[in-house]
Amino acid sequence: MNLDNLKYEFPRMPEDMKRMVEQEVKKQIETKQSRIAKKHKTFKRTLVASAAAVMLLGTTTWAGIRAYRLYQEHTGAHGVAVKISENNTGTDAVSADPQNHEPSEIPNVKMTLSYLPEGMVATDEGKYSYEETLYQGGVSIAFYRMDTGDDTFSLKHDDVLASENITVNGHDGVYLEYPHLYKDEITFNQRIYVAYPDVHYVMEMYAASDVTKAEALKIAEGITLTPTEETENIVRAWDWSSHLASMEQQEESAEADLSDAVASREEMKHTHAIGETFTSNNPDTKDLTLRVADVQISDNISLLDLSVADHSLKEEADENNRLRPADILYIKKGDNDTLSEVIKSRQVAQKLVYVTVEYTNTGDQELTDVLFFGTLARIYEDGDNFYTRTAMQYETPTDHDPWDTALNKGLSSLWEMQYYDIFGGERHNNYIEYLAPDETATVHMGWIVTEEELGQLYLNLDTYGGSDFSDTSLDLGYVDLRQTN
Question: Model-level pTM greater than 0.85?
């Protein structure tokens, strides 16, 4: 998750992060279950929690309780570190084990939200927006489980326009505001952190520019976390240890030689042409073949079944379904001492890439819940190497450019498939429910790209996704969709 870009985009939880959170919750629950000899129940669609969570809470949360405070620490004119530290001024700070701040148990909790502004409704788990601008603004609420200890929480922010320490329903908090670069658009330019050390959670709320500071604080004021024995509708939080590991991995990737963005001609030898049939490299679907049967390029979205198309696709087109151009903004990013600013902008025409993909079961056993996925990578050749262009940087600046990032504000900035017309699985999303032997399922997928990218398009049907080269994507082989004039 790129925190800088979340200031400008609607905070969506990526599928890989959802899977990570679910795996973490499952791991935590299984750990609890291994410690107690209680009867177990299985549920098809829900994770099973320990029935002893609340009983344990009495000894793990209030026995030898520590007093913590969440606060801001300035690091330059526009840099802020949000931290939690132990408050050693009161008797409550005394602990039987001062060397170990890690909680022995963290309860499952339910979130109660007692206030929303008039016209604001729930749109997804932890996400709320105004009915008139669904999915475009409002607030997005996430939580961290402080499994490494409450006082290990620390997040650095730069490019901060304003900040202050706050108190929210008796809990310490910090409010941050970022520059609102795009005055004619709704952007997530506010952040609120609130610590709940009694249950070892920290809330991170993203608030958009269509929500006033007063309303955002009032929403936060109405949030209550309650320990629960129940297994449904509990807060899905990200372990802080997992967050730290993710940040460390991102730093290592940033310092690496970017080898995952480069592939040799030999590594690209499995590239397929349109119409070519190839076999899945997923061990769960080894008898599944894939074939891109057709590719169509259009300047409007009339090829799509608009009854199942995402709202964002419809909003990217005018009343005649013709795609609007994408705005490319050239930004000088802020840091600890400066604020971000837009240096210049331009517009680029957008196109729909509409692809027909055939999935065929060549085995003698039926297949169920077959996952499909498509990433439309932008890849260019230079000599004997192929390079992926990152989705977050539309152009690369030269040493003489006054800007350091080029941001595509169109839907063409997204590389994952933005449209598909077959639905299945528990979430009714990108799964083929049933595929009998010798049966073929035809899936239509769609992406929006800029006109300038038509000569760089390679389709990755690897179900692991990702815009960079990976062992699985190179082994399966990309499908060459490049369009030449």
Answer: no
